[in-house]
Each structure stands twice: as structure tokens, then as C-alpha cells.
Queue: 3 jobs
Job 1
Amino acid sequence: MRKPIIAGNWKMNKDVNEAVQLVNEIKRGVSDIDNVDIIVCPPYVDLSDAGEMLASGNIGVGGQNCFWEKEGAYTGEISVGMLKSVGCGYVIIGHSERRKYFGETNETVNKRIKAAIEGGLVPIICVGETLEEREAGKTMDVVKDHVEGALSGFDEGFIKDIVIAYEPVWAIGTGKTATPDQAQEVHAMIRKLLEDLYSGEWAAGTRILYGGSVKPSNIEELMKQEDIDGGLIGGASLKSEGFVDIIKTTSGLYA
Ligand code: 13P
């Protein structure tokens, strides 16, 4: 059975003081849970504190992006080694907001994933279609293109430990969640694609998360789908009650 993951993507929210408070609250709320991989991905400036507070325990820490070079004159960028040095074990790569606002492409996503894996971080690779693409019947083509582009040139041994997050752009921050059936359909397609590209065994063990307006009220139905192995949570991860609730519901389903 695939161990579920609940990851919070804080995006550009929470200064250091707010982050410390939220991390403390989450820590208290989930201290007894061991059947869910719990991850928080705060903004860069919060990572050092979060990493220290979560150095021991059951919550992992992730960055929201990383650059592919190790160091140098790249103003504004953060390296994989820097993320590791503050306790990160994960990094989100290719989020649709990066694709939309910051020129992220399949090629740059691919380079970041390579750097992340070589540096020892687990990449959480985001894929997903826009509303326009869905309405034009292109969902599967777009998702396939994102997955293939992200993994291009990598063999199975190299990507042993990766996480994929299906995040339909039209469901992000809109309150409009994909229905469990809609999400499951795409997740199953992604797993089939991974099976075609690599081995069935590897595809069956790889975790595929759903993201897009996940909240306490819809996590259960989503998690009951066969190919949904967790959630990448935005808005609902910014308040401890909601995030803890989502984690506990998930934990209960896997008990
Ligand atoms: P929301 O949960 O706010 O829709 O955001 C989802 C997301 O983009 C997580 O990466």
C-alpha cells in the first residue's frame, strides 16, 4: 500500500513569526500520527526556523522551488544544497503558478528535478491543465506533456523517489474542486503513463497527490479514490485546524 502524503504549500504567506506559530500548532495537532507523510512547504525565509523546529518528529519540510545550479551569480535563486542545509527533504517543482507567472517550462522543470534528485531532495512535481485546456478536451494531452517533459531523460533508478501532484489550474484557489471522479480519471491516466514509461512495479509504488481547493470537507471523498495518494494543500494549509483535520481524516482512512 502506498503511504499517503499530505503536504501544505504555503505559497507566499506567513512571515517568520506567523510561520513559527503555525508550525507549533500543526506539530501539536499531529504528534501521534505515523501513517501519513506530513510535509510543510513554507516560504524560503521561514525554512530555517521550520527546519529546526521539525528536525525531529513526524513532519517533513520542503521548499517551493529550487534552482539547478549549485551556487553562483544567480540573484534571487536558491540551490538544492541551501534547502538541504536548513532541513528540507522535499521541494515542489513546476507549480502552475511558477509556470504562469515566472516562465517555468517543461525544460526548466526537468533541470530542477535533476538537480533536486542529485542533491538528495524528493521532488513534488506539479502537473495540470487550465480551464481552457480542459474545455477544449486537451486535459490528458496537457498532463501527458507535463509528465513526459518533467521526466525526460531519466531512468527508473534515478527517479526512484519522486512524487507527482496533479493540480488542475482551474481548481487552484477557486473553491472549485475537481470531483473525485474527475481527479481519479487523471490520476489513473498518470499511473498508466508511468507504467508505460517505466515498470509497472515502480508506477504502482509512486505516489500521486491531488491539489486544488482541497479542504476538510472534501478530503475523504478524494482520498477514497484508488489512485489518489494524498493532497497538496494551499489555502487550507494556512490554518492549523483545517490542515490538522485533513491529516487526521486521511490517517483514519488508512488505519
Ligand atoms: P488551493 O488548495 O489553495 O486551491 O491551492 C492548491 C495548490 O496550488 C497547492 O499547491
Note: DSSP finds eleven helices and eight strands in the chain.
Job 2
Amino acid sequence: MVQKIRKAVLPVAGWGTRFLPATKAMPKEMFPIIDKPVIQFIVEELLEAGIENVIFVTGRHKRPIEHHFDINRDLENHLQEAGKEEALNSIRYISHMINPIYVRQKDQLGLGHAVLTSEPVVGAEPFIVSLGDIVLEKGSKTLCDMIDLFNRLGKSVIALFEVENREVSKYGIVKVKEIEEGVYIVEDLVEKPSPETAPSNLAIVGRYIFTPRIFDKLKETQPGKGGEIQLTDAMRLLLEEEVLYAYRIEGKVFDTGNPVDYLKTICEFALKREDIREELLPYLQETISRYTQLIDKP
Ligand code: UTP
């Protein structure tokens, strides 16, 4: 009998150095995509997949995340009295639905170490890991499909997405064998290969379901670059004794962890919203033509 997945781990303790100085006192996971923080998109995706127990691995300067998921009675009362129903609903539903649990990573020793920090709370159960800065397109069925796969196959499942060949050196890339449309057995994992040596153009992308065996493997993993314990290294050890499956994401993946991709994410989400698109689109068109003229000038 396959154990039911009831918990998700969200590592949010990283330094966010690519966003300094903005991240000196504010977590990048709290940066807004228009009017909603990045981390709320990730929690909403979990709630849609039926997961309410969310274990945040937090660290220094991450308090705003805890405040965000608290119930704020004063603000709720204020909005109620002011008749601001829409604003009230926007803050109320998420904090009433989620069951947040906070675990502190004492030292930022890497993503693998952050996941290992959650072991006393996860226990001997399969669990989801969602990265705190990767947002999937609204309505993505990735997590639901991954949970179904886990229920069917009983082993760890990781999410992949297709990248351009010239981009493979930015990601962890897998060697795989396809067993059904969009579902694979992972044969090997390579961290940041060159386009010439990459075994595929399928990159590991921030959504994972692990059996609890990953914790043993994380304990065996030697620190790599910068003294960090890498999740990919533990996954490679896991591969030696368990089958590891992979699922190819349909639709877009938004990386909000660096300034350029964060801006692209905001543009994309803003243009999807009718109330914003009307003003933003002509502005963007005019700006693009102004800059194109500037760049084209000899
Ligand atoms: P990243 O490498 O994208 O985040 O880790 P970072 O280290 O915060 O960012 P940079 O590279 O310095 O700009 C992916 C996720 O893992 C978490 C991060 O918070 C992020 O959500 N993480 C990373 C931890 O929780 N602990 C760590 O020690 C490292």
C-alpha cells in the first residue's frame, strides 16, 4: 500500500544574493507578482492539489513569510467595516486554509540541507518539495499529475521542463528513458553540463515528490561547492537503490529568483490581467519602439 502524501516542504531560507540589496531584509519569496507575493502562488498550487500541511524551512530575515500566512483579525475587521469585500477575501482564504509549520535552518548550507532540516516534521512519509521561487502557470496540473504518478508507482517523482539547448548549462539535466507520454525513468543526473555533453535538454525544475529514503541519502551527501549540501547529489545516491521517475511539465515555468526572469514573470502575469493589460500593453509597445529606435541609431 502506497502511503498518502499529506505534507509539502518549502525551502525559503536562502540568501537571495542575486537580488541584493533588496533581499537584505526582505525575502525574495515575498516579492510581489503585481499584488500577490511569489510564495502565495506556490501555496495556492499546493492547496489546489489538496495539500494543506506546508512546512516552511525558514531562516534569518524570513519573518514576513510567517506574518503573511497568519490570520490578521484586525485587518479583516477593518476591511469588513470599510465594506472592502474583495480585499477581505484576498487576504482571508489563504490563511484560513493553510496549516503552516515553520522549521528553522540554522545555517544556509544549501538546498539539500534545507530539505534535511524538515526531517523531524516530515517523519517517515513521502512528501512534496516545492521551491520557493519557481511559479507554475495558473491551472497547471503538474502537482496533481505527480501525486497520481506517485500513487501508481510508489517511488520518487521529479518535475522536468524542456529548455533550449544553449541553456542547459544553467540547470541540472537528466538522462532519461521515456516509459509513457511525458513520464520517464531517470538514468542519470548531470549538474550544469555544456550543450555538447548534455544527455538531454530536460531540466530539473523545482517540484519533487520524495520517499523518506531521501533523508538517509542527504545525510550521506558530502558538501560540494561553497560547503553546500546539494539536493541533486542526494538524488544521484537515491538513484543507486530506488527507481526515480520524472514528469514533464506542460505549460510555462516562471523562475522568480533572478531579476530578469522575475521581470518577465511580472510582464506575463500583468498582460494576462484584463484590468492591467489595457493600459500596460500600449505603454510597453511605445517603450519598445522608443528603445528599438535608440538601439538602431548608428
Ligand atoms: P536558490 O539558490 O535559488 O536561492 O535556492 P538562494 O540561495 O536564496 O538564491 P541566490 O542564489 O543566493 O540568489 C532555491 C531555493 O532553496 C532555498 C531558497 O530560499 C530558494 O527558495 N534555500 C537555498 C534554502 O532554503 N536554504 C539554503 O541553504 C539554500
Note: The longest strand covers residues 172-180.
Job 3
Amino acid sequence: MSQKTVLVTGACGEIGQALVQGLSQQGYRIVTTDLMPLPEAIAGCSSEHVQGDLVYRVKQFYDYDFDVIFHLAASLSSKAEVATEEAHRINVEGTMQLLMLAAFKSERRGRAVKFLFPSSIAAYGFASLDEKRRAGRVKEDDYNTPHTMYGCNKLYCEKLGLYYSRYFGQRHLDPHPPVMCDFRSIRFPGLISAFTLPSGGTSDYGPEMLHHAAQGRPYACFVREDTRISFMAMPDAIKSILALVDARRERLSRTVYNIDAFSLTAGEFRQRALKAFPGAQVTFDPKPRRQGIVDSWPEDIDDAAARRDWGWEPDYDMDRFFDEYFLPEIRKRYKTPK
Ligand code: SER
């Protein structure tokens, strides 16, 4: 079988770096793009890196023949609230340009370009904390009323992906419809890596607290102790992307899937941090705007469709996340004694 060529946008971000490593182990030819130069850790995995603003770079990618586009570049939820227009440009314009590329190439070569799009729990939105608590585990199509620019952008791009892969130009109504692109999306919970830190997101309090504690640095958490959302280990996020991209299309009953691993409160994060690093100094200093964002996100996620359609199952529940992934890796990284 010939080597598959893939494009990874946002390759220098948290998911990007981990995904590029995962794809490289699977033998893909990887073209990367990002505003930044590639970090040393993944530079050897990329056969070509295009540095610059994606929105202005997409035209150049018409010369390539990608089998899969992993479109990770985004402005995350907290950052997007302070630069809304810029976030819309990056999150929506960039996605739209790449979807047009995927649609054009699929039609032209008569073979679907796969388009993998990370969406987010930010696509949900609750009217109140009471409603969030009553809702419990949410399914994909419930409470799709995001409160943030980032959430609006993600939800809209999920719809754009469906449009370009099924209804583009109403071509599906032709007697012999052309091949359309193959859009697949995962709504991620908060992600935690032992190797990188997020920037500009709102679930960042989880990873920030743990990384600070591991380094013996004090941390003031910007949400209340009782704040609960779902989180996932980065290796599971990469596993899910690789599994969804490989899933047979006829098995997929949807284009957008929830996935889940474990749900915990900020207070429980603190307890875990204290247990692992007894000197950790974690205080709570909620910031109303960021608190409001997390209060609008679900406590827990129903991922039954992903489990049924493409066999999704996380490797790391909460205990395994701390004991077998995060703590051993972070201790090595910061050389923290046990
Ligand atoms: N983790 C992201 C954020 O906090 C949500 O997908 O913005």
C-alpha cells in the first residue's frame, strides 16, 4: 500500500504535537503547518513544515494530494473571548477554507479526503448552573447553545463539515452525485498532557494546577472548588483521533461524536495534587468570566454513540490517569521525588 500523506494544522499545539508523534509511528507522510516553527521534539516527524497564518496559506495546499486533513489550529475558549473577531477568523475562516479544499479534491480525484476536526464540550451551553447539574451526562444533540465565541465557532464548523460532506451545492441530488469529503469530528473534554501545557483555554485550570504542584509552585485556581467537567489523558485523545480516522465510514451513524474518560471537580484535582505532592499550595480564586464559561459546560458526557459505532474506549480512567500516566511522566519531567 502506498504511503498516505496527511496535513496537520496547528501542529505546534498540544494535540498537534502528540498527534504528529502518533501519526509518525504509524508511518504517514506528514505535512505540518502552524504560526510557529516546529518544536524540536517533533521536527523529525514532519516531511515539510509550512509556517504562517493558515487562512492565507490554504491556497498553497491545492498543490498537494492529502489523504487526511487533521485540522487542529484554533483559538481556544478564554483567548477567543478577548479577541472575538480574530477567533472567528481563525476558527471559522480557516476551517471553511480547508473544507473547500477537501471538497474540491474529493470531487476531482473521485476519492474522499478525510477531514478530522476536533470539536469541544464548549459546543454545549447551559442556561444556569442548576440546569447543568440537572442535565448530568449529555448526548451530542442536547444543549447545543454555546455561550462562548469558541463554542459557537466549533458548533458552526461541525455543521459546515456536515454540509461539505453531504450536501455541498446540493450535488447529492444529482443523478450521479460526485464524491464528497469525509468529515469526522470528536467533541473533546478538557485534555491533560504530562509533556505540554495548554494556552488560552478554560479547562486549563486542571493541567495548570497539576504542573504547578509538580514543580512546587503555588497555584491560584480560577474556578470554584465544586466546578465539575470531564477530562481526558492526551494519549486517549490521540487514540480516539486515530481510531475515528480508521473507522469504516458505513459504521458511522453520525459526523460528530462525544468521547469521555473521567469527570472530576477542581477540589478533587487539588486533593490528587496534594496526595502526590504533599507540599503543593493550591488556593481558589474564581474569576467570574472564566467560571461562567466552565459552568456552561457539561459535568459529564454520554459517549455511547462512539462506543457503539467505532469501539471507543479510553485506556485511562481517573486512577489510571494519575497513577500510570500523569504522575510517573511528570515526576520524570520535573525530577520531583516520590
Ligand atoms: N479545552 C478547551 C478550552 O478550554 C475546550 O475545548 O478552551
Note: The CA atoms of residues 109 and 205 lie 45 Å apart.
